[in-house]
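Worked example

This section walks through a single chain of length 168. The input is the sequence exactly as stored; nothing has been trimmed or padded.
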Amino acid sequence: WNLFTLGVVVTIIGFIILMVTRYAKLYKENAYLTANLKHEVFLKTKDLEVKNKSLEDQKIKSKYDLQMAASVQQKFLPKINNYIKGWNLAVSYTPLEEVSGDFYDFYFKNDDLKGFCIFDVSGHGIPASLVTMLSKHIISNTFFDSLRRNDSCATIMTDINDIIIQEK
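Given that input, the structure is written out below as C-alpha cells.
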C-alpha cells in the first residue's frame, strides 16, 4: 500500500466512524423522542378525554337548563278557554328554540276581556326571552294602571314603550 491509498482508507474509515457515531446518536434521540412522544400523546389524549367529558356534561346541563327555562316560560303563557265572554279564541304557540322572545297575554277585569297583547322581542333565545319576561310584567302593570285612569290606547302604548326603554 502506498501512502496515498493509506490516507484514502483512513479517511473513509474515519468518515464511516463519524457516520456511525452520528447515526447512533440520532437513533438514541429518535428512540427517546418516540418514547416521550407516545407518553405525551397518551397524556394529551387523557386530557382531551377529560375535557370532552366536561363539555358533554356542560352540554347536558345547558340543555336541561334550557328545558327548565322553556317550562317556566310556558307557565307564564295564559291558559284560556276556547270561549271567553264575547270572544271565540284559539292560540297556537311554537317557539323557534326552547325559549323565545314571542309572547301573548290577555287582560281581564271582572271576567271581561279588556285587552290582549301579542309581542315579539327582536332576536330569539335566552336574551329575547329575558326581555320578553320583563316586557310582560311592564305591559300588564301599565295596562291596568292606565285602565284605572281611563287612558287612551295611544297613552298606554307610549307609557309601555317609555318604561321598557328605561328598564332595558
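What to look for: The chain is about 65% helix and 10% strand.
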